[in-house]
Amino acid sequence: MAGNSFGNIFKLTTYGESHGVSIGGIIDGCPSNIPLDLNLIQQELDRRKPGQSNIVTQRKESDIVQFKSGLFEGKTTGTPIAFEIVNADSKSKDYSHIKDVYRPSHADFTYQKKYANRDYRGGGRSSARETASRVVAGAIAKQLLKELKFTAYTSAVGNMQLNKDYPQLDFTNIEQNPVRCADLDLAKKMEDYIKQIRKEGDTIGGVITCVIQNIPVGLGEPVFDKLHADLGKAMLSINAVKGFEIGSGFEGTTMKGSEHNDLIQTNEQTSTNFSGGVQGGISNGMDIVFKVAFKPVATLMQKQKTINTTQTEVEMQGKGRHDPCVVPRAVPIVEAMAAMVILDHLLLHQARKNFRF
Amino acid sequence: MAGNSFGNIFKLTTYGESHGVSIGGIIDGCPSNIPLDLNLIQQELDRRKPGQSNIVTQRKESDIVQFKSGLFEGKTTGTPIAFEIVNADSKSKDYSHIKDVYRPSHADFTYQKKYANRDYRGGGRSSARETASRVVAGAIAKQLLKELKFTAYTSAVGNMQLNKDYPQLDFTNIEQNPVRCADLDLAKKMEDYIKQIRKEGDTIGGVITCVIQNIPVGLGEPVFDKLHADLGKAMLSINAVKGFEIGSGFEGTTMKGSEHNDLIQTNEQTSTNFSGGVQGGISNGMDIVFKVAFKPVATLMQKQKTINTTQTEVEMQGKGRHDPCVVPRAVPIVEAMAAMVILDHLLLHQARKNFRF
Amino acid sequence: MAGNSFGNIFKLTTYGESHGVSIGGIIDGCPSNIPLDLNLIQQELDRRKPGQSNIVTQRKESDIVQFKSGLFEGKTTGTPIAFEIVNADSKSKDYSHIKDVYRPSHADFTYQKKYANRDYRGGGRSSARETASRVVAGAIAKQLLKELKFTAYTSAVGNMQLNKDYPQLDFTNIEQNPVRCADLDLAKKMEDYIKQIRKEGDTIGGVITCVIQNIPVGLGEPVFDKLHADLGKAMLSINAVKGFEIGSGFEGTTMKGSEHNDLIQTNEQTSTNFSGGVQGGISNGMDIVFKVAFKPVATLMQKQKTINTTQTEVEMQGKGRHDPCVVPRAVPIVEAMAAMVILDHLLLHQARKNFRF
Amino acid sequence: MAGNSFGNIFKLTTYGESHGVSIGGIIDGCPSNIPLDLNLIQQELDRRKPGQSNIVTQRKESDIVQFKSGLFEGKTTGTPIAFEIVNADSKSKDYSHIKDVYRPSHADFTYQKKYANRDYRGGGRSSARETASRVVAGAIAKQLLKELKFTAYTSAVGNMQLNKDYPQLDFTNIEQNPVRCADLDLAKKMEDYIKQIRKEGDTIGGVITCVIQNIPVGLGEPVFDKLHADLGKAMLSINAVKGFEIGSGFEGTTMKGSEHNDLIQTNEQTSTNFSGGVQGGISNGMDIVFKVAFKPVATLMQKQKTINTTQTEVEMQGKGRHDPCVVPRAVPIVEAMAAMVILDHLLLHQARKNFRF
């Protein structure tokens, strides 16, 4: 009801501003007595952290997660798992260039109008730094869902689109290149393009595709909490996301039913998967496939006109270290959110399915 | 937690199968002492009902809504508003052709696997008939939001796309044609196309664009319940929807930041609106603009191969009266869901904003 | 968030005013494929209905429940179960004596102040008639919990207290007398007392004790959703309830720890049960035992001073048919609420406990 | 849905085990731009902390709260307020005497059965240490509700009962004595009695009365989220609480309606207040008055028989520093929970009441 919790049975609540003391969260409802590998969690965080390659922001954040509760002798206790990531880069700085300025296509204006008091340092709560907490919770969800495989990858940067469907791709390529594209040739071109964009002081948008494999049949709660509706909300809640489509998505609107229908075979698999693994809001056991659209980063190393808090026109320019393209670092965030949605729905589905008394 | 409630402060819970006794719902949390025009509610229902034109299903449903509670002397009482729409067309019929068959790209298979007991008559709960209840609640939300304007219209049928942006359109055209396209020339072509598709026993997808005007600044609850995330979930929960995008959406991923940023002017309006009226998950006062992708209707008047509940291959064909294209009747549903999301967020935002004690 | 839903995974939403068209509700989240005996549901309703004996109100309500959805071929489908109970006794009457009057210790004043528009006919939404919907949902919950035994009984009427602990009582007595006391001698005295009270035009309070047997270990979600906290809320939400205590309750505050501690035996049962079956908010497998305090009915057949909506002093007197003591008819309501709480917690507990993937 | 969140619009989520790294929480939904006095929050914590007098546990915890987010330049920002209280007393100790033992009337047995993995050090999550987080959130709620007055006090210790109604009491006495009784003579007797009980290695129960003054009319959401139902749940969720009653409570069940009804006067106040400030689940503007029953502390400095995790009978005895009576330190907890309930309901009520668009 206040926007900082996600999930129902496996529920994450996050806190923290980009330049405050720390960010972090509380996971409530994790099943108990499950062994957790904390290194795997840190590894997921490292995939998201700044400074990992030469095409992402060089902001200095080690992003070390510390756990405060909910674990005992290496296993979950069923009580809340609290964690904290200290903001190493939160030293006193000069924010005078943005203090009273509404940066274009940022949330400065809307936060100021909504809350009347705003931590203007580095975006405060509206900074994508908050998503580090999501990655922590998602990494835990993934460990509980070991039999499933969550794979996200960059499928477009600007007009450069990966025109292969995922069965034609080698997912092991993804972590072999800084763009996290599943095709190495295209990855190289995307990397060069991003570098060029950065040189121009500009930024560029992109698309991430996500595939969830080995998904059980039956997840999703019609009519409102359909599985893809919750996946869509999860993705749209990530900073800079402007679109979501599952299966055939917008392209599918141009198809006829006779082309689009996924015929069911005697093995209960469908011959095609235009549905993207969801029928009537419930997983049908086929791979779940969806795409997420990210707008270009709003902070430019170029002068832009805008206004300040007294409605006076001013000129401003981004300072410091920013991402020229958000998608490489967003790949683990997409996976994290997907894992949380699936785990939450799995727990909910099992609540009733296992009803035997 | 069970999928049949939508919203938090203004909350709709729906019930009903397509061929059961009735469908309906309960609206909990409607502000009290608000006059309601019941005719306006029925009018919205009439926009969704079968048989309204020659390009939609001819199923016979008068879809008359009856109210059971929550109203007194023409005004809301603040107590739950329950309503019922009797299923006129629920007579005993022959459903033997679908009883044991999983129709392709329908929810028969997933409902059977999830619930083990399924009302197979006409889709049961998975039928889009359920959305009539949403239209009722949305029509009430609209009356509470009289100062806002919710306008949805068909912007694509198959490959026929409306290539004008909404400021170039005359919204009064929308209800003047059975397709609910905002351009009358294109509407005629779309209508002819849909008729041809129907003749082929086939179906076709489409896109609906929705514009919300006169929206106040400040709606949306970051970081998870961002306004567009909740709009996205609402739209993705509608039958046949496979995609959602706000503002520049997927197209915006190909743009540079220098092209995409919406510069803020001294009147606090932006010069462009690639953001679609939402920044950082909060409305910025510009028009909210989003698109919704609908797949082609799964029921064909053609023979298709599929399997039955004993995993045997069978051939089946749709019977009776079905929509060749879902978008004309989905227009009021999109508006209804949008109105509910906005009202719920407005109430929530006001809860804290008006805090004075 | 608006007060008319109860439960999380098994969730009831109710609607309806005492003299409107009907009352009813929607149960969302009932496990699927469970056979339901509709007669048993009606039987529970009959235990609550007016006119069943000579010490309860003679209001004429047949209270027949009709189901609208969620059932197919005698079993639950997992979709919402909607039901309606038509208000037989809602004919046009003369309500002029209460229209503008705030009846003492009724909710007229608070509803008017909160909502500004109020259905004054017979209490409207604040009437205990609403609890019939709870009995329906509780009767379904009971059928899902066949291995458990829910037994409520009248343990006090005014100063007449049943001074035996439940193991000394024969529960088969309860339905053998109109007071629903578990001791037949005392029941007769209570009955006579209630008749005398009624003759005086007065009313009297009472206490209901509830015992839940064969409860599994592990239900309850600390630290806020402790099992007894949710039971307490459930009971306090019933009309006229002013107190709740579990196990030793208020009496236990006078005891020393050395007297009060329940020693655990090698069979994992405790030698005493001052805890009332809950330790740390979680069921420990012992019987759950709690008491619920009901105030005397506020409607008197005596003249009382009060004010009207214009703050003028007036005199008023109850008309028609009212209960002199609420507890006999409240017994099935207490059981119903208890069953819903237990089922909801059981489903929630199983969601995580059964986590194996 | 997992038990560690409380409230809806003003929502607290807590974490932490008594002997883990720290305890703390996240408050989501606090109205923005409200100045907070952090010293007042620490002062409330000091009222709850160990070692404050000679009749409470001498455990060494300084209980200093640190804030991590949600505050900027002394005011709330509307984003989550996270806080942490480090466990000073969490050093490595010898817990071998309780590691495998189920202490009588503690939650060891139920946590072990529910979660299968349990932090046995000092009670872990089931320790009342968790309530410090509630006091922090309650202290913030109180600051937002400056016009209201929340006063809790010890009204019984064992059989020693304070037989005066609150209008006869001087509330300034409460903080003048270590028992937090509002009558100084009785307080001295209670203090002596608690010391004697402690000398015996025993413990004793007690009752806290809470009065909320200057409450606005209209708070509470019938029919399930009645104001007193939520207050009851809040109180029953506090460690060691076994009973709750509002207004006349259990005593009121012995009264006749003609004695019990609160007559409404022309100033809209009632002549008596047997209702305890709530009618039909909604505040009527009169003082809210309720009582909370606390059982005797379960940890005794006496030998007790119990079993261990292998179902073998063992003898055990409490070690270290424990409270002989919980009520003196529970007084601020009762106030904190009450303040959170009232604030949450006030925000919710205002959401709809202020609906003007």
Automatic annotation (TrEMBL), chains A, B, C, D:
Catalyses: 5-O-(1-carboxyvinyl)-3-phosphoshikimate = chorismate + phosphate
The name of this protein is Chorismate synthase
InterPro entries, per database record: Chorismate_synth, Chorismate_synth_AroC_sf, Chorismate_synthase_CS
Q: In which pathway does it act?
A: Metabolic intermediate biosynthesis; chorismate biosynthesis; chorismate from D-erythrose 4-phosphate and phosphoenolpyruvate: step 7/7
Protein residues bound to NADP(+): R48
Functionally, this protein is described as follows: This reaction introduces a second double bond into the aromatic ring system.
Please provide the Gene Ontology terms (biological process) for this protein: amino acid biosynthetic process; aromatic amino acid family biosynthetic process; chorismate biosynthetic process
**Name of encoding gene:** aroC
Superkingdom as given in the UniProt entry: Bacteria
Q: Which GO terms describe its cellular component?
A: cytosol
Q: What NCBIfam families does the database record attribute to this sequence?
A: aroC (TIGR00033), PRK05382.1 (NF003793)
Keyword check for Ligase, yes or no. Answer: no
A molecular function (GO) term: FMN binding
Names of the cofactor(s): FMNH2
Record note on quaternary structure: Homotetramer.
Name of one Pfam family that matches: Chorismate_synt
Return the EC number.
4.2.3.5
